Amino acid sequence: MTNYWLNSAYQTLLPSPDGQLLVTDDFLRTYLLRPELSLVTESCEAEHLLHQRLTENPRAQIADQDIAAMADLDIQENYRVWLRYRSRLLAASSLEAFYMSLFKGDGVDVPPLFVMQLAQIFVRHILGENAHPLEVRMGEIFFRTQKITVLEDSIVMGADEEVVSRNAQAGESGNIMDLLKGKSMLTRSADLDVLYEENAAEYWARNEEFDFAVQLNFGHEPISHFCRVLEKWIAHFLGIAVRITPMQQISDPKWSWHVGLDASATAILNKLYNKESVESDELEKVICLFRLDFIDEAAVTKAQQGKPVYMAIAANEQQQLKLKPQNLLFNLPLAKVS
User: Fold this and answer.
1) Are 146 and 158 within 8 A, CB to CB?
2) Integer CA distances (angstroms), 21 to 18, 34, 148, in order
3) Partners of 160 in beta bridges
4) What is the DSSP code string of 175-206?
5) Does an H or E element contain 155, and which?
6) pLDDT digits (tens, 9 = 90+) for 79-93
7) What is the number of other CB atoms lying within 10 angstroms of the CB of residue 217?
8) Dihedral of the CA atoms 15, 297, 288, 127 (nearest 10)?
9) Sheet harboring 242-247: ordered strands across?
10) pLDDT digit string (tens) for 190-240?
11) In this structure, how many other beta carbons lie within 10 angstroms of the beta carbon of residue 254?
12) Which residues lie closer than 8 Å to 316 by C-beta, 6 or more apart?
């Protein structure tokens, strides 16, 4: 059993008897430690008092005049944003219920960073302590943008964009940067910055560095592990068992439903489904295709029973993979629950 992603705040939450996550005071306190709300040398007395009050009781009712008393207008706005967020958190029956509510109605009204942090917490909860390290690495895609690079022989690599950018800004040419230039795959047996089955256990020592690259080609282990994470994500939120299989192409004349797992994939699948012209350079952005089959047909609309759902992940114009895991929760052809 391995503990990982200790900085995700997962350990501060309380699992309910049905496996959902319940908000605790300690979880709320983690936001007070973030740079947006933490105290600094310039913090005024009113900010100190408010911060101390919320640290002692993170559910304390805060009046508008308490916020207006702070000297820094940016800090005032940060508190207003967080208090709105806290209000919605505490009104929901679970963290999962809150997450689902974000994508209904008028759209997401909380900072995108908070949404990404919740996705990490959910992946951590879903995978548990006995997860395969490649599953955990592929779970990073749910909440961290990946930089996609195609190397020689059409090898598709994904590396954490923030890590790649940080190395580039520092003027370093470490293993990840070398990898993205197509060098490291030649000596991958000695290159631990590429995570694969044989060296997967190395992930645990660096699980919060997010500095392992992975090969994302069809037929390679990471994509298979990605499928397992997708299946568990659906099972946790929707209570539905599915089987997801990687594919190289869609040749189904009765293709009736698809879900893009990111904005680029959605646009490409829509064009293919509608038999619109798709340029070759756009098709080349597709990283992998998938087939989703429902194990429980009763969960599906009658029109879709016995038929697969096709899915895809793709790079955008900036060569990024920006997954939208909520698409799996809201865009499947599910039967309405009476």
Assistant:
1) yes
2) 9, 21, 33
3) 146
4) HHHHHHTT-GGGGGGG-TTB--GGGGGGGGGG
5) none
6) 999 999 999 999 999
7) 17
8) 20
9) 242-247, 286-294, 309-314, 258-260
10) 334 899 999 999 999 999 999 999 999 999 999 999 999 999 999 999 999
11) 6
12) 262, 263, 264, 285, 322
Pick from 97, 125, 325: which is nearest to 230 by CA? 325
Radius of gyration of the chain from its Cα atoms, rounded to whole angstroms: 22
Domain ranges within the chain, ordered by starting residue: 6-127, 134-215, 221-330
| Type of residue numbered 261 | L
DSSP string, 80-132: HHHHHHHHHHHHSSSHHHHHHHHTSTT---S-HHHHHHHHHHHHHHHH-TT--
Closest residue by Cα to residue 126 from 44, 211, 7, 5: 5
Q: Considering the entire predicted model, what is its pTM?
A: 0.92
d(CA 323, CA 141): 7
Q: Which helix (H) or strand (E) holds 78?
A: helix 73-91
Angstrom distance (rounded) from CA 144 to CA 165? 13
The Cα–Cα gap between 88 and 333 comes to 28
Please give the Cα distance from 166 to 283 (Å, whole number): 29
- Which pLDDT value is given to residue 178? 61
Tell me: pLDDT of 181 over 60. Answer: no
At which residue do the structure tokens 């200790």 appear? 6
- Residue in 265, 250, 238, 247 with CA at minimum distance from that of residue 330: 238
- 3-class SS at 149? strand
Q: What angle do CA 236, 127, 245 make, to 5 degrees?
A: 75
